C-alpha cells in the first residue's frame, strides 16, 4: 500500500476530532435511516494533502482505509458501523469535467467528478455481492464474490467433492445490495453535435434518490473504469460513489462576472429594447411584426415566476409560444438563437425526436439489459429552462397528445408495462411549424391551416403568424441587410477591422454570453402586482377583449351556430398577460409589475388573437407602442 495512505487508526483520530458531529448523527441514524458519512475532499486535503491526492489516483484503497476508520473510531455509544459507506464530494477542478470532455485514458482507475444530465435510469434491483453456491452433489456451500456488473460468476469446482458444475444459488446465505444504473449525458445546451454519455452504476443506500430521476442534473463522483467489449477498444463506465444535484438552472450560470453589463442595461431608458436589439442579430426583421416576435421570445426567456397558493394549486410562470409561418421567414433562426441564449435548455424537431419523444417514455433497450427503463424526452431534459421544438406540426400524434397535459401541469406522467413515473417538466416551450400545405392560404381560415386540435393550441400563451413578405420595399430592406451581414462576416473572418455599422450587421449590443447573464440575473427577481389600478386594468382588458369578438362571430354565437376561431378567449389569456407583464418587469430588474408592463404586453396578446382569427378592435395593436401599423399590412 502507498506510503501516502495513513493507517485507519490515524484517520479515525482525525474523524473523531474534525467530524465528530457528523459521526454522532450517523451513529444515531445507523443503519436504518443512513449508512453514509459524507466528506468534502477539500477538508481532507487541509488535514493531509498527500492522502487527498492519493485518494484521487487510488480511490479504492483510500476509501477502504477511511471506511475501516469509521468502523474503529471511538464513539460515545457501543455501536459497530460495519456497513458504513464514505462518500466524497466537491473534488478539485482538476478532477471535475463535463461528460465527454476529458481523456478517459488519463483518468481510468481514478476518482472523477462528472457534470451532466440523467437521461435514463433503471429501477432499483437487488444485486448479489457475494454468492453462496450449494453443490447439488455433496451439499457443500462455496462463497464467491461477484463482479461489479455483468453475468453472475459461479464456482469452477466444488470445494467439497471437487466436481465442476451443478450448483444452486442460496438466496438466504448470499450477500445482497440495492443496485441501480443511470445514463449521464452532456447537457443539451453544452453539446456540440452528438451528445456524449456514460453509464454510472450505483449500489447500497444511495440508489433510488429523487435527484437521479431522468432529466435531473447532477455532479457524479465515482471511479472511472473500463468495460471489455471483446475488442481492443474498451468502453468506459463509472462506479458511483456520490452525487450532488445542481442548483436551479439560472443559478448555475455565473452571472457575477457581468455585473457591469447588468448594471448598465438595467439602468438604461429601455432595458427590454436593448435586450431585443441584441437577440438574433442575424435575423432580418422586416418591420414591426417581426420585431414583436423577437420581443415575445425575449419576454419568454425572462419569464414570469411560479407560485403555489394556499390551496396547494401551482401557478406556472413559464410562457409557451408557437411560431406558425411560411418556409424561409426565419423561424429556425429565431429558435436557434433562443437555444443559444438560454442558460439551460434542450432542442429537437418534430421529425427527429428521440425514442423518449417530446415528454418521456418507458423503454426497453440495451441500456437496461432488455429491462424497462425511464428515458427523458425534450421537455424533461429542459426542466428549469427552455425547450425548443422545430417542426412541431410533424410530431407524432401520441407525442402531441402527451404535450397537451405537460404544458399546463409542467409534469410528465409515463405508464407502461406496469411501471409508472411522474417527472418534472418546468420549462417554457418555444415551438415552430408550418401551415397545412406548407404556405398560408389567404383565402382559408386559420383553423383550416393548422393540424393541431384546439386543446393543444390553447396551451400556448402566444401563437404568432409569420408570413413571407410580398412588399417590394420590405423585401429590398431584408435583401440589403443580408448582403451587408455577409460582407461584414467576410471581413471579420479575414481579421479586418469592422466599422460600427458593419459590427451592428452581425452582432448585437450585447454578446450572447452577456445576454444570457442578464437573463440569469433577471430570473432571480419575482415581480408582483402591488397596485389596485394595475389589477383593475388587467381585469378590464380581459372583460373587454372577451366581450368584443368580431361581429361576424357574435351573430353566429347568437344563432347557436358558432363557427369562429379555434380558440375562444378564455381566462388563460388573462394569465398569459400577467406572465408576460412579470417578464417585462424582470427586464429592468423591477420587483413590481407596473402599468407600463401591462401596456407593453397587451399588443402581443392582441396580435396573437388576431393571428388566429380574432381581430382586435384597434389594428395599431400590431405595432410597437410607438409604431402603429397600417391595417393592410396585417391583412385586416
Please describe what this structure looks like.
One of its GO terms (molecular function) is DNA binding. With about 625 residues, the protein is of the alpha/beta class. Among the domains are: about 10-90, mini-chromosome maintenance (MCM) complex, chain A, domain 1, CATH 3.30.1640.10; about 95-245, Nucleic acid-binding proteins (OB fold (Dihydrolipoamide Acetyltransferase, E2P), Beta Barrel), CATH 2.40.50. Helices cover about 35% and strands about 20% of the residues. It contains 21 helices and 24 strands. The chain has a five-stranded mixed barrel with strand order 4-8-9-11-10. The longest helix is centred in the C-terminal third of the chain and has 22 residues, at about 470-495. It starts with 7 loop residues before the first helix and ends in a 25-residue tail after the last helix.
Quick structural overview:
This protein is of the alpha/beta class. Helix content is 34%, strand content 22%. Among the domains are: 8-90, 2-Layer Sandwich (mini-chromosome maintenance (MCM) complex, chain A, domain 1), CATH 3.30.1640; 96-246, Nucleic acid-binding proteins (OB fold (Dihydrolipoamide Acetyltransferase, E2P)), CATH 2.40.50.140.
